[in-house]
């Protein structure tokens, strides 16, 4: 009574579907041909607000003594760093020498143990360790309450493989 | 087996530690020089721009006293903010770098000399003498040297200490001959191989009951170890 008349099968259906699929495939092919957009490295793009000229400091002219002091300081610093480097190099050399001698001794005493000692240790890497802080942690410290909102931008790059 | 306590930080610009006598006299000037140069080469930050704006506004206000008084401006001046921050900073007390154990010179605790590496020493009886040495145990045939070292650690600390061993190979050795009394036909002496391990967690819980133990830095090693032993051990201990 109130029913719709029986719908006849549309003959053009499969053709329409095929046409739609081909259109989609064409679009995909076009996207693939176009070169991929690379993920932008945010560190290399200066934000626009830093190009504002009002931000630039007026150049300071330092007195002569200040310049002298700085030059001397740089020299002392480089000397210190050189000494530190030499010290580190010497320490590493003595470490290596001690280990080499130990392995030599081990070889003389027990070759099987030497063979085992020179095997790689897969559990060593990745090696993570926290170094000490400048001041030790305070006991019973109450950190201020709050939540972190993570606003890092995450880029996804889809690789089109043919 | 040698157990090292902590990792030492490299000297930074902020705190030139007195590792070198050359560096010692630069402590004060190094910080000032570095920061000044950085500040001079930088752009104005938001904070500084705000400070400049407010200075201008204050100057304007002073110049036209009969102008409209707008109280809509932010009541919090930059100066107030900075004062607040200063107050907070003064109230905060960071942990002391020189701990109690340093003051008391209590060598059995791990909390002294927080910026240096500490090594574990054990006191044991050899024959009739009490000798300080690094923890050691005899090698049982059928196990690798590293297993021996791990076993030593476990037995010594009764499974309280966890350490990360740095590789399968020993880092140093020491060989010595037994005194005449102890020499038998087969064994003339012994060789000790040292392994390096970094302490992860745990410490001794017994308060020096069985064997005396001591956490010692490289300079203090000389107080405890015998000269030849010491010479060999020193060569593979890093202490920057």
From TrEMBL, chain A:
Transit peptide as UniProt keyword: yes
Stretch list, region Disordered: 1-25, 123-146
Pfam family, one: MRP-L28
Cell compartments where the protein resides: Mitochondrion
Keywords: Mitochondrion, Ribonucleoprotein, Ribosomal protein, Transit peptide
Alphabetized InterPro entries for the sequence: Ribosomal_mL40, Ribosomal_mL40_metazoa/plant
Assigned GO CC terms: mitochondrial large ribosomal subunit
Family: Belongs to the mitochondrion-specific ribosomal protein mL40 family.
Protein name stated in the entry: Large ribosomal subunit protein mL40
Organism expressing this protein natively: Balaenoptera musculus
Automatic annotation (TrEMBL), chain B:
Keyword Ribosomal protein: yes
Pfam family, one: MRP-L46
CDD domains recorded: NUDIX_MRP_L46 (cd04661)
Occurrences of domain Large ribosomal subunit protein mL46 N-terminal (ranges): 37-102
Key words, A-Z: Mitochondrion, Ribonucleoprotein, Ribosomal protein, Transit peptide
Single GO MF descriptor: structural constituent of ribosome
Main location: mitochondrion
Signal peptide positions on this chain: none
A single GO cellular-component term on record: mitochondrial large ribosomal subunit
Subcellular location: Mitochondrion
Family: Belongs to the mitochondrion-specific ribosomal protein mL46 family.
Protein's UniProt name: Large ribosomal subunit protein mL46
Species for this entry: Balaenoptera musculus (Blue whale)
Taxonomic lineage: Eukaryota, Metazoa, Chordata, Craniata, Vertebrata
